[in-house]
From TrEMBL:
GO molecular function (one): glutathione specific gamma-glutamylcyclotransferase activity
Organism name: Puccinia striiformis
Protein name as annotated: glutathione-specific gamma-glutamylcyclotransferase
Transmembrane intervals: none
EC number: 4.3.2.7
A GO biological process held by the record: glutathione catabolic process
Alphabetical keyword list: Lyase
Amino acid sequence: LIWKPPPFVTGRVPCYVKGYTRRFAQFSHDHRGTPENPGLVVTLVPNSEWLKLQGADEYPSRLVWGVMYTIDPNHSEEVHAYLDEREKDGYELMEVDVFVVADGQERCNGKSSIYVGHVTNPSFCGPSKLEDLATRIHKSVGPPVPTRHEYLYHLKREVEALCLEANDPYLTDLEGLVKQLDQTPHSST
């Protein structure tokens, strides 16, 4: 949602949530891949679940930066239906506290809805080596994005643009590996 906001947005606030990890750990059978060759999408996984998994990555994350959108109340049901369709492949909608930094101080900015991918959902694929993720992202195709890597590239760029603290080494390293594959002769889908 960071780089492709829902319709009828009336406000946008950079913020973060605690207790979650953002990872490419969920298969996409419709938006970033196909039923025969699923792609990957990024998801928020509760730390209480992620950290128990064998092979969880070496990018510990205390905060996950993102954007809290304000939706025109006249269109809230329409936006909710739109997001439920867009985030349908195994996500659960949850209410969480969101935090902002104002004048150098952390402040809870209230509650917001987020879509979470639990380890029990049928599309969850779990932790993988960054190289394996890069290869799958590089080879995957899906209908909504014209290039196979645009999803990752937009996400990284938008996260970094939120603020200095939002820099995510996991996204940076993953993007670097995908770009290396782009430069490899005969790297095709």
